[in-house]
Amino acid sequence: MANWLDVASTLGIMAVAVAxxxxxxxxxxxxGVMTGTTALTVGVVAVELGQNIWVAIAAALVLALAxxxxxxxxxxxxxxxxxIITLGTFLMLQGLNLGLTKLFTGTVQVRGLADVPxxxxxxxxxxxxxxxxxxxxxIAIVWWLLLTAVASWVxxxxxxxxxxxxxxxxxxxxxxxxxxxxxxxxxxxxxxxGAAWLVGSIxxxxxxxxxxxxxxxxxxxxIVAAVIGGCLLTGGFGSAVGAALGxxxxxxxxxxxxxxxxxxxxxxxxxxxxxxxxxxxxxLVRRYxxxxxx
Amino acid sequence: xTGATRAGRERxxxxxxxxxxxxxxxxxxxxxxxxxxxxxxxxxxxxxxCVLGDNGAGKSTLxxxxxxxxxxxxxxxxxxxxxxxxxxxxxxxxxxxxxxxQDLAMIPLMAIWRNFFLGSEPTTGWGPFxxxxxxxxxxxxxxxxxxxxxxxxxxxxxxxxxSGGERQSVAIARAVHFGARVLILxxxxxxxxxxxxxxxxxxxxxxxDRGLGVVFITHNPHHAHPVGxxxxxxxxxRSMGDFAKGELTREQLTEMMAGGDELTELAEELxxxxxxx
Lengths: 294, 277
Prior knowledge:
The structure holds 2 protein chains of 2 kinds.
Chain A: H1 2-23, H2 31-48, H3 53-78, H4 82-105, E1 109-111, H5 119-126, E2 129-132, E3 135-138, H6 140-157, H7 159-169, H8 171-176, H9 181-207, E4 209-211, H10 218-228, H11 240-259, H12 266-291
Helix pairs in contact in A: 1-6, 1-7, 1-9, 1-10, 1-11, 2-3, 2-4, 2-9, 3-4, 3-9, 5-9, 6-7, 7-9, 10-11, 10-12, 11-12
Chain B: H1 2-14, E1 21-30, E2 33-43, E3 48-53, H2 59-66, E4 74-79, E5 82-84, H3 89-94, E6 97-100, H4 112-116, E7 123-124, E8 131-132, H5 134-147, H6 164-177, E9 182-186, H7 194-209, E10 213-218, H8 221-227, E11 230-235, E12 238-244, H9 250-258, H10 261-271
Parallel strand pairs in B: 3-10, 3-11, 6-9, 9-10
Antiparallel strand pairs in B: 1-2, 1-4, 4-5, 7-8, 11-12
Helix pairs in contact in B: 5-6, 6-7
């Protein structure tokens, strides 16, 4: 059980943040590669520049928030689909990850994080294992549950949450009644980047070495998890708990196929089928809500 | 027609007290295109000012000027007799001018109470625990809708499940609740059936009776005449006259709206050739 929860936890952290962004009406294709960018930043600043790991983690946070801000700013400024804007940042980051890693280390990975100052405290917070009823659990699961709870509360019980639903539902209409739609969108992109930072730091500290291609290709998995959890692709509807459950289902399927000794190639078939089923169900929800127009 | 216009204007300025909102020679250009020119009228508390015009007459531009979306290129806006300038929709809202847009500025997938307080959510708690006061929001929504005579079964139902008339009334109740003194309604009856339109006209009268100045934008003289106290007629961005209720019969209003002679010509054209139909 600890195993599939572990898969679900890092995916879940991202899925929850991506769900908020999708409810707000946007996609972030750079979310996956950003976990790599932040992990590599932690590695390079700590190992290659010889800083305390906490300094490296802080530097990675600043970088992540800046990228998130840039994504949000470009999307709100140009009015172009976030799909295209973040596809651009995705490709740019992918190139930077590889190019800068090679520049600093001469190889395609950063290693030796276990020996930098402050590693043990960082490991305790981000990558330790706790035992519950004799079962080992990664601490990332705690982060995941915490984030899901906070995201849920923000979404359903704060003004900002109301603005997220409104911006995703109808941006022009919400701006007309005084919702700061631009700021909301930028904040959502920064939240996604912040989640990528958390996952990147967890990955870096847990593995103590980071590959330059870390996280690439994960961005679609986050979106799939959020959609399985009930997020509409068109925005304006969804939940944080749903996205967390989507990640859980994903983790269970991935591990379940291994335990059943099935060919792992089938995994993507099931994933696709689940996605399709989820999208059709979500469509019904939308129809219900918009059926009685007049 | 010029005579009528002048008479109307004079009456507008001789009535007792300063109007809530007054327009003096308002004009708006977009580049070299003149969208509005020389528009003057007044909105008084407890009165309904109807703005009538065909498509492209400049009704939408006029609303946007009043709502603070566009700055007028020429002319003056007076609020309680003193000149004002709105830089953003928020300024107009703060001055008590609420606009109910044709698309209603409501989010179909969101609950009624969430829509009702959208952009002006009440909060409770402090610091990082400051939260949307959902209990108050639900109660106030139910109360305000009841005060307008709207019976909503459940404020938690999505706005998308309401009928067009019900949505209009929610939007009007929202504007009234947020202290609007001037209520601008953009074509509130245009997409509705006869019965639903009647319901909305009743809400307009109710808002008027509560002492609001109402600007009712429509292209339907049959909807405008029963509730209107003043009628501003627009054609291609220009005023065709600003009349008080007593100066116009419904028939005159209809004829002016339809373009009078144009309609007669059209009728003749459509009837030909005689005996064939």
